[in-house]
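Today's session is about reading a structure prediction critically. Students often jump straight to the picture, but the first step is always the sequence itself: look for stretches that repeat, for charged clusters, for runs of hydrophobic residues. Only then move on to the predicted structure, which in these notes is written as discrete structure tokens rather than atom positions. Here is the chain we will use throughout the hour.
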Amino acid sequence: MTRRRWSLQTAVFLGGATLIVVTALAAAVLYSASLQRRGEELAIEQLRTRGELSASLLARQMYSMWIDVSRLAAIIDPADIPEARRQIQFVSQLEQRYAWLGIADPSGKVIASKDGMAEGRSVADLRWFRQGLGAPTAVDDHESEALERLLQTASGPYRFIAMSAPLMHDGAPAGVIGAQIDWKWVIESVAALASRNIDLVLLSRDGIVLFGAPDLVGKPLTIGSAQAASRGASVALIERWPDGKDYFTVTIPTVGYADLPSFGWSLLIRQDAVAAMAPTRELVRSFWFNVAGGVFSILVLLNFAAQWVVTPLRRLAHAAETMVKDPFSGMLARETRYDEATRLRDALVRLQSKLMGKVRSPPEDSGSGI
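Below is the predicted structure for this chain, in token form.
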């Protein structure tokens, strides 16, 4: 039983299709991987830029408040308590971000303050007072008991930003001006920098979440980016957060501006990896659709090209088979599609002529007469 062989058209089509498909797939896979990698780089770069800008804006706002307190220290005269109290009250009415504003003498006794809060009490054990005796300072503190004594509240633990600066009178230290910034203002400032798709997470010096998703606030964050931030490293990661989702995460290890004292804060900027890569996935999907359409179109053209190449050969093969059976079957049609077909047709015509000549010539006499 004769094994059936492939036709030339099938061989040309399958060979060409294999070469085209394999090449297209290899190029498409490499290009898709490049798109994916570039999409990740762009997402991280966007987060890094957004994080640096957010940290800078927040620090500038804190710096502005810190400068204002330092300027007040140059204006207020602790020797004139009534005038100092009037100035403090006036500034407090203009600037609602001050939860408390007041001055204390060198022993730590409050001698004038906003709405008279804590006047006559001692703040000598508070860090902002101790540091403020020597130079302008700013601290992020969590001294709930001292704060309750100072503000006469009992609302439980409360974080605040304390700023202070030394008061001078006749060239000598005469006390400290202190301001406690409402923490709600800090939170609102950070929240205003976030967006619908990009989250900001503010970390304290000890890795506690000060601002972020509600399920994270007040809890220590131990993921890799938080640990990197605590070491002062700026990193970009794709990591899984406690909510079980993967996020692109960029760390801004410090939130500071100019000579503003450091609060020890760090900022994490994150974006859901699925949402961040959605445009890239759509681009890759469109690319693969175009590749599939292009390959299909090329295969259709390849099929037509294979037919174009094979058709003259099929006609010549049929003519040759017929010629073997009957040399007088007729002249072969001209084949001018390409040079090889023309040469083969001419050779078959010469062969047909020879066969016809042999058939027409009489047989030679091989015997003698009687």
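Discussion point for the tutorial: Residues 143-148, 152-157, 365-370 have pLDDT under 50 and may be disordered.
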